[in-house]
Design brief:
The chain contains 14 helices and 15 strands. With 423 residues, the protein is of the alpha/beta class. The strands form three sheets. A seven-stranded mixed sheet has the order 4-10-9-8-7-5-6, sandwiched between helices. The longest helix has 18 residues. The protein is globular, with a radius of gyration of 22 Å.
Amino acid sequence: MTETARLSALTRADMAHILHPHATVGRPQPPLVFARGAGALVWDVDGREYIDGTCGLWQCAVGHGSTEIADAARRQMETLEFYASFWDYSNEPSITLASRLADLAPEGLETVFFTNGGSEGIETAIKLVRLAWHAQGAPERSIVLSRGGAYHGVGSASLAATGIPALKEGFGPLAPGFVHLSSPHPSATMEDLVAELERVIEHEGADRIAAFIGEPILGVGGMIPPPDGYWPAFQAVLRRHDIPLILDEIVTAYGRTGHWFAAELYGIDPDVIVTAKALTSGYFPMGAVLIGRRLMNMLDGVPFRHGFTYNGHPTGAAVANVNLSIIEREGLLDRARQNGAHMLDQLAPLAELPAVTAVRGVGLMLGIELETPVAGQIAAGTLGRGVIVRATGQKIVMSPPLVIERGQIDQVAAAISKELRAL
């Protein structure tokens, strides 16, 4: 078989047999088939090079093609590839990782429940808080407050918590017990958002609310940072009404904002932090739910009848341990802050274009909000220029690997600029 025939066969097989996430059923499109990656670059099977401006889906913090991580996975697979972590079974890599996360996490988050990814982490956190109130003789405390524009996953409860209507269409009835507040969009004042929170708590009754869940920065919703003072003010209200806070750091944890956790950046003191993605830089499907002392005390003596087959996977934990060491050793938190500032500087002039409403950035999380729904057109155009960005609604979102180089950042900004200026 010739190389051309092989590649054509790959395309046909994909279109015939794979249903891709967010694809239209029965209307398959020819896929862009990736073959390899290195650092912030990926190549397709035709040999074309692309700058990965999205980290796949936010996750590849240390870049593609790390032989150090691959070797760690191989060594662990040769030693103990997997054994269940249910009941009182465990393994050394997961114990080491849990201890390390307890040291890195904000004060008081000392217990770790492992998952396979973000949606599972949100499901876990919601079950934890509801069970905690049940254990305290308050099973009626089951309502979870969330926000419009939020993305928390695709499971039963995680989709119900999500505040993006298009993602829920046709999947009803969804899990009950979720109430959505306004999105912390820049057009909303912090005072109005806090007042709304107070009204919702009064209307629903604090004695019926299990928790509030929120992303420190809206990610999929458009890379929207909160207004100044938002999180301390929200946290004060939640504490006054004894409502736990679940912080969704699936996207933001492990360096994306230039900090191990965005909780540090905004002075947030959550009861639970849900993480995934950059925990392993995508080299293995794994997440971790970090649980605070308050919930652990509320749950003391209560069976937690919940778990996933691959909880605490030893190979995933071995990968995560090496990944965290690379982030630390290579100073990627500082690099995210510095290169994020440079990238924002390169993109900021685009705010003057008629097609652009706003340009925003925190660390290596950046977004461009557009006046009209042409984000898909822009993303397709930059792809043709060898740059991968993500279109979400009327926004372009970028989250490149933390190892991206300055010259590559300039290429990303130039490709987006050319597409926007050609509108």
